[in-house]
Every structure is written in structure tokens, then in C-alpha cells.
Amino acid sequence: MVDSAFELSAGASDLLSRWLEGLKGLRDASPHTIEAYRRDVAGFLGFLAGHWGGPAGREALGEITTRDMRAWMASERGRGIEARSLARALSAVKSFYRWLAETEGIEASAVTATRSPRLKARLPRPVTADAARAMISDVPLMHDEPWINARDAAILTLLYGCGLRISEGLGLTHAVLPLGDTLRITGKGNKTRIVPVLPAVRNALDRYLTLCPHPATPDSPIFRGLRGGPLNPAQVQKLVRDLRALSGLPETTTPHALRHSFATHLLEAGGDLRTIQDLLGHASLATTQTYTGVDQARLMEIYSASHPRQRKS
């Protein structure tokens, strides 16, 4: 958060805007990621303005010291910022300063040499298979409109049944229809993976598409809001919050927890770890093997035998 007493100087604001525009053009970053970078770096620049007692202009940015960096990190910890969030903000600041060094010739060594805070290992917290099924079954209690209930059940079934990130699910268009036995997903880093589609997923999606009142072209998003625009991730997050409150589930029950549940339940049911890692398309889990190294027949065999939604079909 930018210190309200010290607005960004015109020069700093211009540099920040140019950097963000460059990120949009060069990186496969979502608008949410770009906005997070903007907040983190704007907050850092706001701190510097307060710390230095004046605007953090272009010349001042080149005079930053390791002492300034330590003061910023101490200030963030004092505000209760957790190590993981501070590490993310530091990463954004370093990226900004590397760009400043390349494009403006600004000295960046004090920033780039700053060590990231140590992070505790954070394990995913999946919901149980019964809880996942109960959440989907409770969707009709959330809304009076049948097509919206069908939509909500379809997106949750897709996240859990295919292990998708929420952005991947909401990013699907009618071009992928009709669904076959597999679905090609382009995820983070523009990496493509193939995920099998269970009958339960296909049935939930077919029911929603039958009821959805909005016309569609191949480029139209599958999941639509009330007025026909793309469904907002915040609406899915609110849906899950309401469902977990109804069922008494913990706050760790989020749309992303359904993705972790997908992996955990397959593994617990005897799925092959490497195959599951490839299904997730998660760089931290599968850095040495791409999906093309997995036999597709074996993939479908493991998936069909292991996934709880398949066994219920």
C-alpha cells in the first residue's frame, strides 16, 4: 500500500507504468498477476518516499542502499506482512529494478543483492472426497435460477474433476466443445497439457450448456455471468465461501483447494505420482518431464481407476 502522505512522483509513476506495460507484452502473466506487481512496487515506492522524506524520483531510485532495503523489509514485517507475501513483493521490486538497470541505466545492485526471507514449506490443504462431492451437491441451495446453479455445479466439477486452476477453467471457450475424452489446457508459462475428461465433468457441463440462455460463438467464454459476460473469478470464490460456510468447512476450502484435492485423491487412490504431476501442469511438481513423455493409454487407465468422481459415475 502506498503511504497516503507521499504520492508517487510523476517520474516514478511513469517508470512504473512503462515497466508494467512491458510485462504485459513480454510475459504470459494474467491481469491479476500484473495488478499484484503494481501494488507491490507502488507500495515499495511509497515506502521510499516516506523513508526519504520526499518523492522517490528517478535520480533517488538510483541511490538506494542496502540499508534502505533492510528498512523496507523491517517496515513490512512490522505491518504484519507474512514472509511469503514479502518474498513476492521483493521479487516484484527486483524485477522492476532489473528493468530500470536495463532501460534507464539505474544502479540496481543494492536491490538485486537483497536476500529473500526464508519460507516455511506450505503444504496444500485438500478437502475430502466426500466434502468435494457435498459442495457440488449443495450448489442448488445457492441460487433460484436453474441455469446459474447448473453453471456453478459445472465449474466446481471441472476444477475438481480435471484439476484446473480457476483461470484455466474460466478461460475455456466454446472452441473446445463438444468435449471429448481429453481436454487441452494451456496453463502458466504458456505450457500445454492434456487432461482426461470424466463423464461426470462432461455431464455437468452439458447440463449447464443446455440451460445457459446466452448465445455463443467459438470465441465466447463457456462460463458466463448473469448478463452474459465472462464469469468473474470473484464470483466463484464467493460461491465456494458460501458453500463451505453451509457445510462448516475450514477457510482453507477455496477453488484452488479443489485442484489440490484432485491431485491428493488420485495419489491416495493409487495413481502414479509422475502422471499426476503432469496432469497438474505445475512447474514446481514437474520440472523435468513434460506430458508428452507419458503414455496416454496408461494416463487414462490410472485416471479412470483412481478418481473418486469417476467411481461415482
From TrEMBL:
Residues 10-101 form the Core-binding (CB) domain. InterPro entries: CB, DNA_brk_join_enz, Integrase-like_cat_sf, Integrase_catalytic, Integrase_recombinase_N, Integrase_SAM-like_N, Tyrosine_recombinase_XerC/XerD, Tyrosine_recombinase_XerCD. Transmembrane segments: none annotated. It comes from the Bacteria. The keyword DNA damage does not apply. Forms a cyclic heterotetrameric complex composed of two molecules of XerC and two molecules of XerD. Site-specific tyrosine recombinase, which acts by catalyzing the cutting and rejoining of the recombining DNA molecules. The XerC-XerD complex is essential to convert dimers of the bacterial chromosome into monomers to permit their segregation at cell division. It also contributes to the segregational stability of plasmids. This is Tyrosine recombinase XerC. It comes from Algicella marina.
